[in-house]
Amino acid sequence: MKTRFDCCRIAGICATVPTDSVALDALQTEWDPKALANVIRMTGITRLRVAPPTMTASDLCLESAKRLIQELQLAPSDIDAIVFISQTPDYPTPATSAVLQDKLGLKQDVVNFDINQGCSGYIYALLQAEMLIHCGLCRTVLLCAGDTSTRFVGARDRSTRVVFGDAGSATVVTAGGNIDCFHLKTDGSGFREIIVSAGAFRVPHSPETAREVECEDGNFRSAEHMFMNGKGVTTFAMREVPTIIEAVLADSGMNKSEIGLFGLHQANRFMLDYLARKLGVTAEAMPFACGEIGNTSVASIPVMLAAAGVKLREQNRLNKVVLCGFGVGLSWAAMTTTLADTQILPLAELKS
Fold this sequence. Notes:
CATH superfamily of the largest domain: Thiolase/Chalcone synthase
Structural class: alpha/beta
Number of domains: 2
Strand content: 25-35%
CATH topology of the largest domain: Peroxisomal Thiolase, Chain A, domain 1
């Protein structure tokens, strides 16, 4: 699917991470030090931000939203819709967006709903916001994108424990005159490549699904932990991401030389370095800024922007931007936009 809108602008972005963290080199007592050092070198991830048990994705989004609303000098009555996009909601029901509506003191006739989406979800959320504005229903939309993916990670699963971190973000999209182009794709035949296979309604929680066992890849996890086929996901991303970026650029009438920033999902340094070479762009144009945070799923693009925003603006890289997310689903999405006038707040921390 592809579309474009000429009626919106991204007014502001804010991201928040927990203060608690885990240094990966501290895991040397549990795992082979040489193997661990190789993983750190390949992924570029040295530390993970980890939310404590009492902190949820919505808490991190709430902190981001409060800061951003204050920075943009918005009143609660200015916000017409709130969209919460996450794979780790507060409750099975009700929608977490309803909880956030109350905590933020928003008006009762605000549009609110949740979207279950992961690594490509930030682009999906921006598409949803722009559709709400394009149809005339809203003028200002608040997007809350966050995940506490570490809740799905098995302590003895080397394939996920050294990758995922936690974060939440807030983005305000308002009526404006920018032209944004979107391309979005899904291949549900690959849904098992990244999956938590038990704990919902297809396979409900039970003592058996909660029991950790040794798996074929030599890792220990339960059916309620996240499984990720790292090799399969990497192959998918390397095949599809360059193609969708080239396609959205062609549709927007831009070429790669015009783009100051390729803001990609922060999967790991190895993947982004490969994609930069494949696309023929510099590492500075495709930054990996989450080495001390981890892969934060749906929040990773706003986290990267918050962490690297000052430097990106100093380098004049925000005038023409490509944003691209890819992963769970399997799903991938890209868009062209501008962040030249977007207020990007520095990365914040939330204490437990």
